[in-house]
Design goal:
- With 430 residues, this protein is of the alpha+beta class.
- It has 2 domains: 95 residues, Nucleic acid-binding proteins (OB fold (Dihydrolipoamide Acetyltransferase, E2P), Beta Barrel), CATH 2.40.50.140; 301 residues, BirA Bifunctional Protein, domain 2, CATH 3.30.930.10.
- 32% of the residues lie in helices and 27% in strands.
- The strands form 4 sheets. It has an 8-stranded mixed sheet. It has a 5-stranded mixed β-barrel with strand order 2-3-4-6-5.
- Helix 5 packs across helix 7 and helix 5 crosses helix 14.
- The relative contact order is 0.11.
- Bound molecules: 4-amino-1,4-dioxobutan-2-aminium adenosine-5'-monophosphate.
């Protein structure tokens, strides 16, 4: 019977065969412990010399790290193992021997590990992070499907820039200029006018020269957009959605969180509603905290966001930023034209901004003016303006950065570990 490690619970007391890799091993003269992994989980295989005989025991002792094998054995319950099971080995067949696997159980530097990312992914820690990433994606589809959203896929090759022109990846599109998408938002606005409530999930590209623990050149974003939703409605979707993904990870990734040493008590508290603070109040707060240099109209850097987030135990919305700091499409506050109806959601524990969102301008004339003020090519935005010409409605949306969210929920310091093959300022390989 060929099974996976995830299935062993159904086969207690039976003999099974598992296709696996040898993650690690230790042995004495009489017994060998094989740490086996097959992608679905980890299990310890125990090879007892007196039971398997001289030849098989020798073969087990000679196994090298990351060799691939078929392992046959009896499934036993074992309360000491984190998985609850152990395999008493009765047979071994080596599929391919691995010679001198570069990532040994000793400590390695980050650059070395990043150079070997194609192999590093096999480690327990990376396995746990990828499983949490997967759970967040699963819970995302679940949340939006359960709330009547339609998944829409915006293009990756685009002719216009939603988030400003300085960070665009330029390419040629036959005879024209084209850019890699830095946000699907403008297309999602068109989709919301057709389908009501929509969401996208896809890669985005930003030629940002930032070398921080929060920046990737290629990252994945979830972008919902809702027709007839105003500022408040938008925040409600965000807090319900973020609470849902956190609670789903807590429920379905206990082992992974444990392996990463995540303090889950902090995550348990992440339930709607989330606290809010206006940009104005945030500036006052920062002054009180000793950030005397920052003045109204300045953008917040990572230390400012961290200081604000530290005074809350849940994610916090910073709302109503100055218009001058934000992209052209954001709706000004009717009471105070110098601020926009936007919010950034800042994760707790120093993980920074995970969501940027806003109500969008739905007035044709105002939007045309903004496009001009931002010196964008009106021709490239002609189709976008037409959304305001034909049955314009108030609408809102947001973008959640997947990798920053994975970093926060997993408690992983740097976003480079939250995406299978990170694209960083100086890294295009592997
Ligand atoms: O705040 P941003 O730039 O918002 C937008 O792109 C909107 N058009 C989204 C929308 O309303 N549909 O980016 C949204 C999120 C950020 O909060 C952050 O989590 C993530 O995307 N993000 C990055 N993640 C990793 N590396 C980078 N360089 C990132 N830039 C933004």
């Amino acid at each position: 019977m060929k099974i996976t490690i995830a299935e062993v619970g159904q086969f207690v007391g039976q003999e099974v065969t598992i296709g696996a890799w040898l993650a690690n091993k230790r042995s004495s003269g009489k017994i060998a412990f094989l740490q086996l992994r097959d992608g679905t989980g980890f299990i310890q295989g125990v090879v007892v010399k007196s039971e398997v005989g001289e030849e098989l025991f020798k073969a087990a002792k000679a196994l090298t790290q990351e060799s691939s094998l078929y392992v046959t054995g009896m499934v036993q319950e074992d309360t000491r193992s984190p998985f609850g099971f152990e395999l008493t080995v009765t047979g071994l067949e080596v599929i391919a021997e691995a010679v001198d696997y570069p990532i040994t159980p000793k400590e390695h530097g980050t650059e070395f590990l990043m150079d070997h990312r194609h192999l590093w992914l096999r480690s327990r820690r990376q396995h746990a992070v990828m499983k949490i990433r997967n759970e967040i994606i699963r819970a995302t589809y679940e949340f939006f499907n359960d709330h009547g959203f339609v998944k829409v896929d915006p293009p990756i090759l685009t002719g216009s820039a939603p988030e400003g022109t300085s960070e665009l990846f330029h390419t040629r599109y036959f005879e024209e200029d084209a850019y890699l998408s830095q946000s699907g938002q403008l297309y999602m606005e068109a989709a919301a006018m057709a389908l009501g409530k929509v969401f996208s999930f896809g890669p985005t590209f930003r030629a940002e020269k930032s070398k921080t623990r929060r920046h990737l050149i290629e990252f994945w974003m979830i972008e919902p957009e809702m027709a007839f939703y105003e500022f408040e409605d938008n925040l409600k979707v965000q807090e319900d959605y973020v609470a849902h993904i956190v609670q789903s990870v807590l429920k379905n990734c206990r082992l992974e969180l444990e392996r990463l040493g995540r303090d889950t008590a902090k995550l348990e508290q992440v339930k709607a509603p989330f606290p809010r603070i206006t940009y104005d109040k945030a500036i006052e707060f920062l002054h009180e905290k000793g950030f005397t240099d920052i003045k109204w109209g300045d953008d917040f850097g990572a230390p400012h966001e961290t200081a604000i987030a530290e005074s809350f135990d849940k994610p916090v919305f910073i709302t109503h930023y100055p218009t001058s700091l934000k992209p052209f499409y954001m709706q000004p506050d009717k009471e105070r034209e110098e601020v926009v109806l936007c919010a950034d959601l800042i994760a707790p524990e120093g993980y920074g901004e995970i969501i940027g969102g806003s109500e969008r301008i739905h007035d044709l004339q105002l939007l045309s003016e903004r496009i001009k003020e931002h010196q964008l090519d009106p021709e490239a935005y002609k189709w976008y303006l037409e959304l305001r010409k034909y049955g314009s409605v108030p609408h809102s949306g947001f973008g959640l950065g997947l990798e920053r969210t994975v970093a926060w929920i997993s408690g992983v310091e740097h976003v480079r570990e939250t995406i299978p093959f990170p694209r960083l300022l100086n890294r295009l390989y592997p």
